[in-house]
Specification:
The protein is α+β, with helices and mostly antiparallel strands. 25% of the residues lie in helices and 30% in strands. The protein has 5 domains: 3-224, Rossmann fold (3-Layer(aba) Sandwich); 240-324, Elongation Factor Tu (Ef-tu), domain 3; 342-415, Alpha-Beta Plaits, CATH 3.30.70.870; 420-526, Alpha-Beta Plaits (2-Layer Sandwich), CATH 3.30.70.240; 529-640, Alpha-Beta Plaits (2-Layer Sandwich), CATH 3.30.70. The protein has 15 helices and 31 strands.
Length: 641
């Protein structure tokens, strides 16, 4: 039986055949109007009633709505009839027919060819989530390239566009915010036409704010995006479903978002994760509209969800494949386990919150398998966790969620990266933190990760950005004209320098007009060293950091000066020093608190006072020799910020 025969009419009504399915996503830079366009699509198609409409409908997290960025992927199913101005019924009126295994709409007079299922996956645009985006692109056949007409093409957009081309997707170019008085429509179209090698007439104009051009865009999606690949149904109904995202529910466990490539899911089969090798029996299956809507089946070519019932972290992961437990088909190609590139230690400000922090990290791990954590202990900060993240934005999101969703006050150490160290004895060490560095004299060589970056900027800022790149140890590559008086710069730089506020400095020197994208490159020799901070001749591990050798003096003076300004004075003279390469690079002395031990004397010979002063001097000397500096907790917090 072929797939077309599988969707035959078995009842009075309309059946949306497989050829009427369109799966697509939106590619856009941050703040280019992606979420607003998705809102208008949901409104025009009648997917959400007017009374329930709000801004950023598909952004469920408070953090997403506050910052105006997409962090978590959100799929949604819409029903559309081309060239039909009347709104169709809410997709909740769609019913499943178990015999036909298709969809029908409760609307008399609607012809089969007019009814289309549009599956949109709203993806994050930041490079930290590049792997997750690549799996979402694998789940669709088309992509809308959305470019803000007031800003033009940005570097981040080009990175995701390259991934979409590699996935073989049909690209639909669109310029947004055409209603803005600052719109540069013709210039933006020229940039897009240059990148895609297409005619400017083929580029659509839309406004997510007013709804201009959205109806035409939906029609073009139906015309240009191909339906899911035709696969003959097999008698044994072998299943292959790509997991492109997942979430966690306290009551039902992990819920995976899937695109069915072969076979179908009815909820009665015993399923398995092909990579994780874990069997499960589905509790519930359904579609997104945009809330989860229960369904009796998800057929080949469709996008939906499966409630697994699994409540263990690390089982579900993006890129895995759901197959039949006893089936013959294997995992779909392209699976990778994301590797952390940025590391930071997270400690609770109150030591009593340690168990709460452990539970919170475990709950976040259930819905985000891309970050990892393990317990560690510091003599000064107490017990905490060493966490690995995909990038600086990922780190910021996870720590912010810990604060907001679990009401935890945290101390987050300075982020670091992974270094490959070779000792003089030939041993190879992977160091995730400065404390794991051997002493300077034992190191034979160090390698560190580099990144390839692309910067698009107005030509007026080219000189300042070149100086900034040099400051951050970048190796400049090609610089070319990007059109509209903008230039494109290629360079390579150490990942540690990218983390040292490079993005903020780039925005500052370019008045916010430059855009940046990057991708991981190979390991290269590193000219770095470990810098320690000593307080009263004792190393404070929490203040240690890895710095560039050429910036060691600058970094040490800055760290010592900052600690000198916030450390409370002790009863004895306290030295604050920065050491590296076996020598002291920077030093400051914190004077002791003074007590007038002779204040109660009201007369007599001066020798009485001298005896008391001498006794005080000896006491302070003993305190300096035997005593330790008690560093308050808030000093650590201020040094980490």
């Amino acid at each position: 039986m072929t797939r077309e025969e599988f969707f035959k009419d078995g009842f009075s009504g309309i059946v949306c055949r497989m050829r009427n399915i369109r799966n697509f996503c939106i590619i856009a830079h941050i703040d280019h109007g992606k979420s607003t366009l998705a809102d208008r699509m949901l409104q025009v198609t009648g997917t959400i009633p007017e009374r329930k409409m709000r801004e950023q409908v598909l952004d469920d997290m408070e953090l997403e709505r506050e910052r105006g960025i997409t962090i978590k992927m959100t799929p949604v199913r819409m029903i559309w009839r081309p060239n039909h101005t009347d709104k169709i019924r809410n997709p909740s009126s769609l019913i499943r027919n178990e015999e036909s295994q298709g969809l029908r709409v409760k609307d008399e007079g609607l012809s089969d060819s007019e009814c289309f299922i549009l599956n949109l996956i709203d993806t994050p645009g930041h490079i930290d989530f590049a792997y997750e985006v690549s799996r979402a692109l694998k789940a669709v056949e088309g992509a809308i390239l959305l470019v803000d007409s007031t800003q033009g093409v940005q570097a981040q957009t080009l990175s995701v566009l390259s991934m979409a081309k590699s996935a073989g997707l049909t690209i639909i170019p669109v310029v947004s915010k055409v209603d803005s008085p600052y719109a540069r429509i013709s210039e933006s179209k020229e940039e897009i036409a240059k990148i895609l090698e297409c005619d400017t007439k083929d580029i659509l104009e839309v406004s997510g704010k007013t709804g201009q051009g959205v109806t035409e865009l939906l029609d073009v999606i139906v015309q240009k995006v191909p339906p899911p690949s035709f696969l003959p149904a097999r008698e044994d109904n072998q299943l292959q479903a790509l997991v492109f995202d997942f979430e966690y529910s306290t009551h039902t466990g992990v819920i995976v978002y899937v695109r069915i490539f072969s076979g179908n899911v009815t909820g009665k089969e015993k399923l398995s994760f092909a990579v994780a090798k874990r069997d499960f029996s589905p509790i519930e299956i359904g579609i997104f509209s945009p809330d989860r809507v229960l369904s009796k089946q998800i057929a080949s070519g469709e996008i939906g969800y499966i409630v697994t019932g699994i409540k263990e972290p690390g089982v579900a992961s993006v890129g895995d494949t759901v197959v039949l437990s006893k089936g013959l088909l294997k995992a779909l190609p392209g699976y990778e386990r994301p590797s952390p590139v940025v590391w930071a230690s997270v400690y609770p400000e109150d030591a009593d919150d340690f168990n709460s922090l452990r539970q919170a990290l475990g709950k976040l791990r259930l819905s985000d398998s891309s970050f990892s954590f393990e317990e560690e202990s510091s003599g000064l900060l107490g017990r905490g966790f060493r966490c690995g993240f995909l990038g600086m934005l990922h780190l910021e999101i996870v720590t912010e969620r810990l604060r907001r969703e679990f009401n935890l006050e945290l101390v987050v150490t300075t982020p670091s990266i992974t270094y490959e160290i070779t000792t003089k004895r030939g041993e190879k060490i992977t160091a995730y933190s400065p404390i794991q560095f051997p002493s300077y004299g034992d190191i034979s060589g160090i390698k560190e990760p580099w990144v390839k970056i692309r910067v698009i900027t107005p030509a007026d800022y080219l000189g300042d950005i070149t100086q900034l790149l040099y400051k951050h140890e970048a190796v400049l590559g090609d610089t070319s004209d990007f059109g509209d008086n903008r230039s494109e710069i290629y360079a390579e730089m150490p990942l540690r320098e990218l983390m040292r506020g490079f993005f903020d400095e780039l925005k500052s020197v370019s008045s916010g007009f430059a855009s940046l994208s990057y991708e991981m490159a190979e390991l290269k020799d590193a000219d770095v060293l470990r810098m320690d901070i000593l307080v009263a001749d004792e190393i404070v591990p929490a203040f240690s950091r890895v710095v560039s050798k050429r910036k060691a003096e600058e970094e040490s003076e800055s760290a010592v000066e900052k600690l000198f300004s916030i450390l409370p004075r002790q009863m004895f003279v306290t030295k604050i020093q920065a050491t590296a390469m076996g020598r002291i690079i920077s030093s400051k002395t914190l004077s002791a608190l003074k007590k007038d031990v002779t204040g109660y004397l009201y007369g007599g010979d001066i020798t009485r006072k001298k005896k008391l002063w001498e006794k005080q001097k000896k006491g302070k000397k003993k305190m300096k020799e035997r005593g330790k500096v008690n560093i308050p907790h808030d000093v650590f917090v201020k040094m980490m910020k």
